[in-house]
Amino acid sequence: MDRLFHFPNMTQTLQVTGCHFGIKPPGWRYPRHHHHLYELICCLEGESVHEINRNSLTLRQGDWLLIKSGIRHESAAAASSYYRFFNVHFDLDDAEVRSVLGIAPYAHIPSESASRGKLTFYVQELEEMMRQYAAPDTHGDTSWREELNPRFEDRLLLQSYTLLIVRDVLALIRERDAYAGQVSSKEATLFAIDVAHAIEERLAGSFHEEATISAVAEELHLSRSQCSKLFSKVYGLSPKQYVSRRRLSLAKELLVTTNLPMTEIAERLGFQSASHFSRQFRRWTGQAPSDYKPKHDGCS
């Protein structure tokens, strides 16, 4: 018997920003704002009130809140008690993940639902890591902020737990029949998904989003603007951003897994020249393609 069970090749980027634990006094408020990342909040103690798209939502102990990127929101601690919380902003360049994350402006996961998974365990592990690196508390009731600097292996652990948290949240969202803030018309939502998937299928074979959107719009008798909006609603990013992420993902894969010259990689990705590709790759990653490519010492 000769069998091989092969998992798919994956070259994906996880961005983690603003991952922190906090304690805020009664009545604390964070003003209305928005950002380009997804946000996850877990209420560990007390209560907090969040205003999202003119909807008011109260988080209680054990509740989780996922807020879609680009959604304006503000937060406040209840007036009666201190508010202790865990918060992480993240992005992940996986189309299927983003299609679930982007289906609604926000999703509220009550504590009874969250307790069915391992979310509490993951947060406890991250809180233990925080305690390992945090200085002793000598500040009393004064306000302060401490930047932690974990070792490399613990930064990997932080990324791992963030991915596991996102995984559990996505699983809980998939189980729900309705999403908080989701559009009321199921047919409209299914139509949006169909249009977005039609665009995505064409984008998978092309790096020219303008021609792709125009072709789908003509086929479905919609405007280009309507198609772009439906795609953004389902995937949480514009077709142009989607193509940019695909290019980055494929660029990383080609740099890591092949010995192709930069000119050929640039041509495959639809760039006019190797220098154009190099400039764009540096904008994406902060590194030159030659620095990202693994170095081989010639030993067998």
Automatic annotation (TrEMBL):
Name of this protein: AraC family transcriptional regulator
Record's keyword terms, sorted: Activator, Cytoplasm, DNA-binding, Transcription, Transcription regulation
MF GO annotations: DNA-binding transcription factor activity; sequence-specific DNA binding
Recorded superkingdom: Bacteria
Coiled-coil residues: none
Domain HTH araC/xylS-type: 193-295
